[in-house]
């Protein structure tokens, strides 16, 4: 398969063309290739028996080279008398039948339909310097003359670098005049540039075939931009975009050959040319260390593990490159809607493209190592597909990735880079042994096995929001399973003892702050009431319901369609202690405040649909002081508001903290390592002294750990108290500015 590249590297047309004009010097024609590089295209679209007009011939030897191989009927025109005289004298003996004429391309001294081919090598580019009205008018006159002197069925063959204003206008003009258009890429010309050590600009050959104009005749627009396959384009914008992508990719390759991209997040999509769908996303990581012995390597991320911190964030990938000891590492992400034969098959598909991104000076015979976590690619199985009126299409999938526990995920199709909910599944008792990796790839320890991401935002902005809704399922002994209702999948039980999302565990830890302490075993302990706004897949609600047996829980979410997903695939079971209501969280709080309903803990785990504000979670309306006053009215006197805050805008984050502090005098902020999330614990009753507050929290977490270990029946601490305290800040009136750093 020949993969088509797209790049997300910072790119501007101005930067691209400035690079070209700075490097071409006085030898502009060399960039377009000579006859040896262009002959493959020319022989395909220009016949030896054609009567050929070479427009703007300049000093090029192209027509003379064509003459020598049998193209005898050639007329060369240029508007420079010096050029015409010099070229005629130079080729008088070697090309006696070739004609030379001084002409203006916008007013050719030739008869109507005199030629069967007009050949333009860089003349249009030289004429069409910008998109100003005066120049466009000149270009239109040139095109009109080409149309006049060409007979029906004749071809205008234009060799160009296709600046955006050129390709856009060219396609528009010839489409309006009912010509058939084919845009081809001349890779031989590019290859010649690359081999000579120059910046390899994409060179294009545009073939426009003149048809007799007829009413309602639809223009045929085709492209041949990668390999030999010709593809029909639906519209001109598709071709313009594809040309631009190739130019972006060329600039990226040039950048990679001339400097390090250390500290930059650069990605390239490789697409299946037959469908246009992305088949691979590759991230380029350059290490700051020049001492690494491995100059270049490729790491293939197991299918389904692309969004883990180590593979899914810029910081994680930099760590991965350090672990691999590579100066440049290509990190390859597979796509959920694609199938892959094997690790070796993926290597075969990628080998050509990844070598284009190798550092300069790498010997051509270098054997580049392909790294991975193991010998298997992993598998992603779609077990359910549905539609939500609020959220659009979604899928539930199960992931079997080497080096990680099996997972079940909910993904919305309008944002497939985001995992909405993720649950760990109970593993089979017998596990397949990991095979040794052969010579073509080797295993690297990732150090992040099974760390999930429901409702979290990683450092590079990829969010995993838990937005599945409530429902019914079966739950026994810490797992949930049963009939999935999804056909042939979803029957494996969910492991409720594990919270995939680290900020969910932090929110659970916040319950150690206020009485009645859920960890206390006394039978006369009052029942804590918890309100969760943003139910998600129900995993946080189920965790609290199961492991805090005296707690009464109310889960609120907006999307009713997700309730079916939650009950079929994520095991949420409403009962007398766990109630679910489908409504807007803002309306629920207002109603609860009016009715005098009280909760010991109110949790915000609601995502924002408006990402333009820089606030991903919760929506801004949930943090307005007037709404927070309603929240206070719904809290018991010692109650605590627990907020999952995801805000990338530093200035906005500072303002939000000031507003929260105006309502809640006591605010603790717990950072989540390797995530953007911060969990806020807000109270009006907790001690104001930071030392006393931290001591109380640490003591409460220790007690909570003991209770969870007994209930889950595990020997290790569920909450890393030391890590929590290291990432905990007590926010005083003056300290809100720390959130701006």
TrEMBL record:
Q: Which domain of life is it from?
A: Eukaryota
Q: Where is this region: Disordered?
A: 429-496
| Biological process annotations from GO | methylation
Q: Which family does it belong to?
A: Belongs to the methyltransferase superfamily.
Q: Which InterPro entries match?
A: Lys/N-term_MeTrsfase_sf, Methyltransf_11, SAM-dependent_MTases_sf
PANTHER family to which the protein is assigned, alphabetical: EEF1A LYSINE AND N-TERMINAL METHYLTRANSFERASE (PTHR12176:SF78), SAM-DEPENDENT METHYLTRANSFERASE SUPERFAMILY PROTEIN (PTHR12176)
Pfam families listed in its UniProt record: Methyltransf_11, Spermine_synth
Task: Identify the residues that the record assigns to the Methyltransferase type domain, covering every copy.
Answer: 55-158
Q: Compositional bias of type Gly residues: which residue ranges?
A: 476-490
Tell me the keywords, alphabetical order.
Methyltransferase, Multifunctional enzyme, Transferase
Where along the chain is composition biased (Basic and acidic residues)?
A: 438-475
Question: SUPFAM superfamilies, per this entry?
Answer: S-adenosyl-L-methionine-dependent methyltransferases
Q: Which residues cross the membrane?
A: none
- Molecular-function GO term, any one: S-adenosylmethionine-dependent methyltransferase activity
Annotated protein name in UniProt: Methyltransferase type 11 domain-containing protein
